[in-house]
Design a protein that fits this description.
This protein has 458 residues and is of the alpha+beta class. Helix content is 38%, strand content 24%.
Amino acid sequence: MNETRRLEILGPEAQSHMAGARADCNAIGGAIVFERPDELSTSELIGRIKRRMGSSLDLVPRSTKIAVPLPGSRPAHVLVDGPPIDLDAHVQATALDEVVSRERMAEILMFFMDQPLDLERPLWRAMVVPRVEGGQGAVAFRFHHFIQDGVLGIAAGAVLIIDDRPDRALRKPPPYKPAPPPSEADLEAAHKQIVADRRSAVRELLSHAARDPGQALRRVRHIAGTYREQLGGHRSQLLSRQSNRHALEVVQLPFTDVKACQDVLDHHVSVNDVAVTLLVGGLIRMLEPEQRRDQTIRIDVPVTLALQDHGADDFDQRAAAMVLTVPLDEDDPRKLLRVVNEQSRVRKTTGARDIADLMHALMLLPAPLFNRASGAMWSSGNLLFSNIPGPQTDLFIVGNRITSMIGLGNLRGLSSLRVVTLSFEDQVSMGIVYDRSVTAIDKLTGGITETLETLRSV
């Protein structure tokens, strides 16, 4: 993150989330389900949640920022201080007088995630579902991808509402003193800084050209290959979005069972690799053999590159994605896990760095071309997948113990699936947002469970 006076300039990956027709819906979020005492009234619960959030806004500085477009033909937004937060506008409540089922709660959460954010306000929202069956309640939140990536978006929501003990007293935050709105000179300086940064990134990309043209050429070819792989190839019509009939399904798996699958191969693999394999295994079992013959699925996975030689302020400049290409005609989950693991070990470093460099270069394009290129990049995969590691200890919301956490996302581009995996205590939950017209959800969820059982038995 670069500072030009009081303006926050975010990296090209963040800027890409402001491109396209549904830029106001690009959010990451979570739902937190908690035990709710019978004697706690709905109005008191909502009041406590708002007071808890109000006491923590200063701990999440971007919760008070608004996005401002910069002048000029190139695509760029910066974050500036907004007016004092109106919690009544940012924290909604629904189903005040009914006890909702888990199925009804999923519908509410999907509606909440699909609503556009007001880009002239700070880019986050929360919603309270006061009464859920089983003596529980729920709070959902979402942060626009422009201001926080997946991991930080979930963490920001946690800071606003979650406590590590039931009797945690409310903080008294310092008075909020927003900086004055930026002047035209401030905005122009920020615009010049962004252009200079992008040009510097492109020069770095080609830095070896003078000394070693062959190495520079190989580097450019490698990046071009990554780009072709991300955008090219046959896109399965079975998995491309065909309607606006979105729905949410939650699959909860024992954390110990998922962890056990890390030792299936002859070397240790990540929980992310296991989660991706379970999901692909579910898709394979959902589709008929003739539907998946010679088919592959491309999976976009967000990545934050290692911060070696980079300060914490550069975090937003190091966000990218990797693209995994996994066969759909492989029935052996162990072989699938090997494919996922071998690809991710390379692509979460070199491949993701290639895409990050490419996005820096794309920022030099005029806004219409950048928006088109960003849309193509985020539409390249059939599936958007995020894995968020969560805490393994008891946590609380306004004194009430949390029983589960659910990851939430949006469909983007032509993808008919968006999956956010979130671990908490002894559970791994998969929040699956899907298109009803192309996804046989019962077969998919059953296939995920079957794949887990098969991997565990190897």
